[in-house]
Amino acid sequence: MIQIAIMGLGTVGTGVAKVVAENARQIERKLGEPLQVKTILVRHFKDGPYRQLMTDDFTKIEEDDAIRVVVETIGGVEAAYEYTKRALNAGKHVVTANKQLVAEKGAELLALAKKRGVNYLFEASVGGGIPILHPLTQCMAANRIDEVYGILNGTTNYILTQMVRTGAFFSDALREAQQKGYAEADPTADVEGIDAGRKICILADLAFGRQMDPADVPMEGISKLSLRDVKIAQRAGYRVKLLGRAVRLGSGRTAYVAPHLIPEERPLASVDGVFNAIVVRGNATGEVMFYGQGAGELPTASACVADVMEALQASPRREEIGWEADPAGFLDPRELQSRHYYRIDGSLTDAAMAFGKVEVLSEDGETAFLTDPISGLEAAERARGLRVLSCMRVLG
Questions:
Q1: Distance (Å, rounded) from C-alpha 332 to C-alpha 244?
Q2: 150, 226, 274, 282: least buried by Cβ within 10 Å?
Q3: 3-state secondary structure of 248
C-alpha cells in the first residue's frame, strides 16, 4: 500500500481524492500496489466523506514515514511554500497544481528536491488536464525550443468566445462566466492576464532553462477590450485571443501576455469556450499544438495524480526538470516584430502618415488598420501623434 497526503481540500484537492478512489484499479495496475490517501491537511474541519482523514496539524504529514508523496493544492505562496519546503526536507515527493508558487519559487524548490533526492512535479500547474510539461522536457528534448505560446486561461477564452458568438459586451460575458462557475467572484487574476502570465513563466523556465521572474513579464488582460475591436477583427478574418507568449531571442529571451489578432485559418483561432491550447515551436519539429481542458476539478486532479505516479516510478528522480535561478537575459518584449492592429480617432491619411502602407479594416468615423511587421517599440513611436483608441499585436 502506497500512502499519500493532500494539502488543501478545495476543488482540486477534492478532485485528487476522487480520482484516487474512482480509478483505484487502474492506478494499482500501473504502480503494482494500491494507492491510498491517508491524510488531508485542512484549515477548517467539515463533514463529508473525507472527515476522518482530516487534520490541521502539518506535522502529522511531515513526521509520518508512511506518507511518500504530498499533493499541494492550497494555492497562494506563503503557507504552500513553507509546507512544501518542509515536506521536501522530510524526504517526500511533492506534487502541485499551484502555478503562482512554481512561477515564483520553482527554481529554489526544484534545487531543494534535487538535494533531498526526491521529485517536485507540477504538470497540473500550467495546462490543467493538458499534458504539456512532460512532452516539453522529454518528448521534445532533442529540440532547441525557440517559442512557446498559447491560450492559457479558460475563463478569458470563454468570455472572448461569447463576445464573438453572441455579441455580448465584456461585462455581460464575464457575468455569465461567473454564473456558470467558469470565473471566480474576484476575476482579476484571470481577466488581467495574471494567471496566464504565471503559466507562461513556467513554460519559459522549462523551455529556456532559466528563471523567468513574473515581475518582469508584462501582463495585459482583456478587461479593457472593446467589443468593437472584436467585431472588426472578426469581419476581417481574425479572432481575438488572449495569448501568453515566450520567445528565445539571439541575445536572450522574453515573455508577455496580451490580446492578439489571430488569422482564422490558424488552428489556435478555433479554440473556443473554456478550452486551452499551447503551441511549442522546436527547431526540429516545427510547431506542435497541445489542446484540452485547462482547468476544472477532474482534469487538473488527473494531472496531479499522474504526477504522483510519475514521482513514485521515477528512479531515483526526474533529472531533466529544472532551470537556473538566475533571471538574467530577459529582454523587452516590445523588441519583437509583428504586424499591429490599431483603431484610431482619425483618418486613413493620419494612419498612412504615421505608418506608411497600412491595410484598412474599417473606416466609419474611426479608422482601424493593420501595419506592416515592425517592432513594438517602433510601432509605439510612430503612433505617438495619433489618437489611439486600441492597439493589439497580430500573431504572424
A1: 15
A2: 226
A3: strand
CB of 260 within 8 A of CB of 391?
Answer: no
* CA–CA dist 199, 196 (Å, integer): 5
- The pTM of the whole model exceeds 0.85: yes
CB–CB of 387/346 below 8 Å? yes
Helix or strand or coil: residue 128? coil
Cell of 76: 497562494
Q: What is the rounded CA–CA span in Å between residue 356 and residue 367? A: 14
- Residue 367 annotated as lining a ligand binding site: no
241 is in an annotated binding site: no
13 annotated ligand binder: yes
Take residue 65 and report the three cell numbers written for it: 514515514
Residue with cell 496580451: 258
* Distance of alpha carbon 5 from alpha carbon 51, whole angstroms: 14
Q: Is the pLDDT of residue 111 over 70?
A: yes
- Asked whether the beta carbons of 242 and 222 are under 8 A apart, the reply is yes
What residue has cell string 517599440? Answer: 377
Residues annotated as catalytic are 199
**Domains of the chain, start order:** 2-129+298-313 (3.40.50.720), 133-293 (3.30.360.10), 336-394 (3.30.70)
For the segment 173-231, what is each residue's pLDDT rounded down to a tens digit?
999 999 988 888 999 999 999 999 999 999 999 999 998 999 999 999 999 999 999 99
Are 395 and 261 spatial neighbours (Cβ–Cβ below 8 Å)?
Answer: yes
